[in-house]
Amino acid sequence: MAKIFYQEDCNLSLLEGKTIAVIGYGSQGHAHALNAKESGCNVIIGLYEGSKSWAKAEAQGFEVYTAAEAAKKADIIMILINDEKQAALYKESIEPNLEEGNMLMFAHGFAIHFNQIIAPKNVDVVMIAPKGPGHTVRSQYQEGKGVPCLIAVSQDATGKAHDMGLAYALAIGGARAGVLQTTFREETETDLFGEQAVLCGGVTALMKCGFETLVEAGYEPESAYFECIHEMKLIVDLIFESGFEGMRYSISNTAEYGDYITGPKIITDETKKAMKQVLSDIQQGVFARNWLLENQVGCPNFKATRRREATHQLEEVGTELRKLYSWNDSNKLIDN
Ligand SMILES: NC(=O)C1=CN([C@@H]2O[C@H](COP(=O)(O)OP(=O)(O)OC[C@H]3O[C@@H](n4cnc5c(N)ncnc54)[C@H](OP(=O)(O)O)[C@@H]3O)[C@@H](O)[C@H]2O)C=CC1
Ligand SMILES: CC[C@](O)(C(C)=O)C(=O)O
Ligand SMILES: [Mg+2]
Ligand SMILES: [Mg+2]
């Protein structure tokens, strides 16, 4: 059983007198920075000249510097820029400004695990990886709660890396929910597998396939959207609260019977075989190599797929339908 740390295991005062540079002000960056600031930490932001987030971070009360300047001023440097850009940023702006005893931090292990960044031996290297999107890390903190985090230490130069990491996890709210001990390898491989096979790739492919099946059979796209996409959240909320059993308690017996007999026809032994191949490609570094190569040539496939997906019929239908939800501030994440 993995060890889990809670608020009482964390000492926020370890961060007193320390300057935290959050490099990047996107999904995770804005959440870590605002949460840590509101927890009483001294936080500055590191960006690049021309960043669309520079003015936003200043408007939200931060001193903003280039990544190099921020790294020079800081004791703790949390790298929250895109994984695929971290190696270049590190070489150019972080490495020349590292001092003995600094703590280099990550929210995902990609760059360290796949040897994109090799830190000097005299700094701590720690990961605090929230198990949720950055906007949720922020909204949960504002509600007095937190998103669970993973902690991993790959270098402990100061002898305090673990405790400092826990203090950071408390500062961003994660320790309110729980902080699980792990390693950079385990976090990287499980996170990549989860987002590709299940959470993002798997779920959207399943929903899209269901939507297309109904529309191609002549049903209204709006009905297909409600059934295969909108209602997913409501079902997942029940699973989040009380597991598969709780969800199955809440749905009808008819739905539960259909769940048991149809699920295994959709997700088959072939699916598991495909998942094992996906995991193997992640473990062998094949996925990381392909992703980094795609970036080296300017992401043509990635950008083309993003454009194609954005124009799928389900997005048009969804945009219109979501305007009808009285509680929904339509597309608020994308608009921000
Ligand atoms: N998204 C999530 O919820 C999760 C992400 N993570 C990890 O967190 C890290 C950050 O990801 P995420 O928050 O999604 O990233 P985003 O794409 O949301 O934000 C990246 C930020 O980095 C800035 N940036 C890009 N290049 C540079 C540069 N060269 N110098 C300085 N700043 C730069 C961007 O600037 P601009 O605003 O101008 O574009 C932006 O503010 C990754 O390691 C990711 O794996 C971990 C858990 C969940
Ligand atoms: C599920 C996607 C994620 O791993 C996350 C929000 O945790 C990510 O990389 O964004
Ligand atoms: Mg994740
Ligand atoms: Mg991830």
From TrEMBL:
Cofactor note: Binds 2 magnesium ions per subunit.
Role summary: Involved in the biosynthesis of branched-chain amino acids (BCAA). Catalyzes an alkyl-migration followed by a ketol-acid reduction of (S)-2-acetolactate (S2AL) to yield (R)-2,3-dihydroxy-isovalerate. In the isomerase reaction, S2AL is rearranged via a Mg-dependent methyl migration to produce 3-hydroxy-3-methyl-2-ketobutyrate (HMKB). In the reductase reaction, this 2-ketoacid undergoes a metal-dependent reduction by NADPH to yield (R)-2,3-dihydroxy-isovalerate.
An example Gene Ontology biological process: L-valine biosynthetic process
Record domain KARI N-terminal Rossmann: where: 2-182
Residues annotated as binding NADP(+): Y25, G26, S27, Q28, S51, S53, G134
Enzymatic reactions: (2R,3R)-2,3-dihydroxy-3-methylpentanoate + NADP(+) = (S)-2-ethyl-2-hydroxy-3-oxobutanoate + NADPH + H(+); (2R)-2,3-dihydroxy-3-methylbutanoate + NADP(+) = (2S)-2-acetolactate + NADPH + H(+)
Binding residue positions for Mg(2+) 1: D191, E195
Annotated substrate binding sites: S252
Keyword annotations: Amino-acid biosynthesis, Branched-chain amino acid biosynthesis, Isomerase, Magnesium, Metal-binding, NADP, Oxidoreductase
Catalytic residues as annotated in Swiss-Prot or TrEMBL: H108
Pfam hit, one: KARI_N
Entry cofactors: Mg(2+)
Enzyme Commission number, as recorded: 1.1.1.86
Alphabetical list of NCBIfam families matching this protein: ilvC, PRK05479.1, PRK13403.1
Coiled-coil features, chain-numbered ranges: none
Domain of life: Bacteria
Assigned protein family: Belongs to the ketol-acid reductoisomerase family.
Main EC class the enzyme belongs to: oxidoreductase
GO function term, MF aspect, one: NADP binding
Record's protein name: Ketol-acid reductoisomerase (NADP(+))
List of residues binding Mg(2+) 2: D191, E227, E231
Transmembrane region(s): none
GO cellular component: cytosol
Domain KARI C-terminal knotted: 183-328
Gene label: ilvC
PROSITE patterns xref list: KARI_C (PS51851), KARI_N (PS51850)
